């Protein structure tokens, strides 16, 4: 599944995360697509996914996401990423973070993401964000 079209899809998805335009991220999902981050409450539908992306983009106005790898695992496409940014959004700590994570995508027949299960090391994120 790491064919050229899927690689191109992942590269464009990465660019959307770097765009400071949260709706661009949501456009990669099916209209009823689902994004779940670290086992939290699923964001269902493009409006909810836009809100989830906006939360990261607001917290990290200089947000950069890097595409680290793309591969198949257990019938899903795994999108491995690195997030880099400085938490200077409203109420931010002013601290820089660099964390890695993964989204495991189930693709929709129309070539969008039907379901994404994302994860990253919350303890490491909190340590970098708050210096603990």
UniProtKB/TrEMBL annotation:
User: Would you say which domain of life the source belongs to?
Assistant: Bacteria
GO annotation, biological process: polyketide metabolic process
Residues of the signal peptide: none
* One Pfam family cited in the UniProt record for this chain: SnoaL
Fetch the InterPro entries from UniProt. Cyclase_SnoaL-like (IPR009959), NTF2-like_dom_sf (IPR032710), Steroid_delta5-4_isomerase (IPR011944)
Q: Which SUPFAM superfamilies match?
A: NTF2-like
Q: What name has this protein been given in UniProt?
A: SnoaL-like domain-containing protein
Q: Which organism is it from?
A: Gemmatimonas phototrophica
Lineage, uppermost ranks: Bacteria, Pseudomonadati, Gemmatimonadota, Gemmatimonadia, Gemmatimonadales
